[in-house]
Amino acid sequence: MPAATVVLQTAESFQTLTIRPPEAGIALQGRIRVPGDKSISHRALMLGAIANGTTVIQGLLLGEDPRSTAACFRALGAEISALNAKEVTVKGIGLGNLQEPTDMLSAGNSGTTLRLMLGLLASHSGRFFTVTGDASLRSRPMLRVIRPLQQMGADLWFRMGGFAPLAIQGQTLQPIHYYSPIASAQVKSCILLAGLMTEGKTTITEPALSRDHSERMLRAFGADLTVDPETHSVTVTGPAALQGQTVIVPGDISSAAFWLVAGAIVPGSNLVIENVGVNPTRTGILDVLAEMGAQIQLENPREVAGEPVADLRVRHSPLQSCEISGAIIPRLIDEIPILAVAAVFAQGTTVIRDATELRVKESDRIAVMATQLSRLGAQVTELPDGLEIVGGTPLVGTEVDSDRDHRVAMSLAIAALNARGTTIIQGAEAAAISYPDFTATLQRICP
Ligand code: S3P
């Protein structure tokens, strides 16, 4: 059987990924390890920087986003060893001791870096900070964190409409109870981090539960935190004293998601993805794929450093359409691009709703996925808050574009595995934001 073609070409800082499956198809086989969880990696670097003592991080994601966080916190005075996946040490400088950098901080492409860091910077009284990011980040909404921080007494300047670059004059903040209009772990974490240095009880209530990695890690570092699961509320009592810890970062379920869908849609596949974080606030993808008829088994479930972990086995099986909406959306928000690919290969019409947030991610993921999957021949209609996908139309390879969005680039690569002919993905370099070894792994599992 002729082998699949998976070729990555690099020209300056741009990459093009060419994928041509053999006519007889490719069965994906093997055991895979995905890189460390991005959300947990950011938080480990940040809490390590502001804690007392040394934090050791095993399994840190070496993607560009955590590199942006490390660069910012080095500029703020924390000593962070050279980044590697085995072991990174962070010598914490203690809460309230972030130093005023002599230059602008850059969060690169990373919304998590910028929004979480703002909570810390705003509460560092007497110090002045300026923060920016790349073109994508500078177009993403920051009012969602600016408004609650201003209610706490923060002094912030920003571009009209609430866009970076931002300037922050640190202040002593007041505790508030903030009712967030959106379920967002970035908003929640920003407020909790601001609350660490604020005397009294700072509470955030969200409309649905978003990922809870901040709560788990803040507790482990010694913060006084209470959670009310009924009302989706978290309260931090400040001032806190954080102590450095060992953080073992599990594999990122958002990266595993590409292989889960690849294994489910490519006939003859049988893949095991080892050591994946299966925190219930992140496993919406497993619930939806199970409902669609995917065969996914959790093997060897265990708890590692306060986070649930398992090996995930996926085998090919026919998929059915489903409806994805409501409270499950925050539990799979980053997986919607790859779930859209699953829907293209499912029988029936899949409807994704209540996902307006996708329009303000690294790209407008609703518009970009609708456009790019349509180019491949899929029947996809853009809805104001989601997508309608009529599955079952065979895809034909062509040139597509990631719009510099890492999750779009990788989702299109998985779609290409099941398309006839050659697919050329422009902007494939974006994968390095969260998954630098994506193409190497794809080459390894393609026979
Ligand atoms: C993240 C929260 C989510 C998610 C993002 C990472 C985090 O964003 O989409 O990739 O680490 O807190 P929102 O909080 O904006 O939903």
TrEMBL record:
Keyword Amino-acid biosynthesis listed: yes
Broadest EC class assigned to this enzyme: transferase
EC number per UniProt: 2.5.1.19
Pathway: Metabolic intermediate biosynthesis; chorismate biosynthesis; chorismate from D-erythrose 4-phosphate and phosphoenolpyruvate: step 6/7
One Pfam family from the record: EPSP_synthase
Listed name of the protein: 3-phosphoshikimate 1-carboxyvinyltransferase
CDD domains according to UniProt: EPSP_synthase (cd01556)
